[in-house]
Design a protein that fits this description.
This protein has 218 residues and is an alpha/beta fold. Helix content is 36%, strand content 21%.
């Protein structure tokens, strides 16, 4: 783990996956409610193989340093998420974006679940090339300002965390957001959980790769 300092002086861990070929840009992956898991590190390796330097900040370090929550202990992860302050969390995200931006290329953000909502906030407030949300949650709290960066979203039509009415409201508020839906539930792209739907995950990641290629590399 690498240590990164936020603007308020908070230091937190960040997993860095170096680009496996010529560096084309950077990607910040924003966690679910489980921390910096091995599953997310696998996602990081996948994008690093495409030439991106990938960072996964430990966004729960303000609540419990070094915590990784087992997938079957979702209540603990939820409680850590609820204890997090959005503005403080975004300071951490901003610090990682700035760290990657020191190297060549643009920086994009990919967020999953709780991190998917944070990816929307990143597209609203940070200097990034693009953002992608995978089944981002808590959508109503982000319907308070426009998007500054290109945004793509992936949700399952059977997601019990994001009812169809909630997603429809977000689509109306962000008409420029590119949205794709899949016959799947929540966390359909997490291949370490029973919710995984391979076909949906593969399509979503293919669309993500193309989206980031367009806006980060050109």
């Amino acid at each position: 783990m690498t240590q990164i300092a936020a603007a308020d002086g908070h230091c937190f861990d960040c997993w860095i996956e170096p680009a496996q070929s010529e560096r084309k840009g950077g990607i910040v992956i924003l966690q679910e409610i489980f921390g910096v898991t091995d599953q997310l590190k696998g996602v990081a390796r996948t994008y690093a193989a495409l030439g991106y330097e990938v960072a996964i900040p430990a966004l729960f370090d303000r609540q419990e340093r070094g915590v990784v929550v087992p997938f079957d202990k979702g209540i603990k992860g939820r409680d850590l998420m609820l204890a997090a302050n959005l503005d403080e969390t975004m300071q951490d995200v901003a610090a990682v974006v700035a760290a990657l931006a020191q190297n060549s290329g643009k920086v994009g953000v990919i967020g999953f679940c709780w991190g998917g909502g944070l990816a929307i906030r990143a597209a609203q407030t940070l200097d990034i090339g693009a953002a992608v949300t995978f089944y981002g949650t808590r959508l109503p709290q982000y319907l308070d300002r426009p998007l500054k960066a290109p945004m793509q979203g992936h949700w399952g039509t059977e997601d019990d965390h994001v009812p169809s009415e909630m997603l429809a409201e977000a689509r109306s508020y962000f008409p420029q957001m590119e949205v794709h839906t899949y016959k799947a539930g929540h966390a359909f792209a997490n291949d370490a959980r029973p919710s995984y739907v391979a076909e949906a995950a593969e399509k979503a990641h293919a669309r993500t790769r193309a989206f980031l290629q367009k806006y980060l590399i050109g």
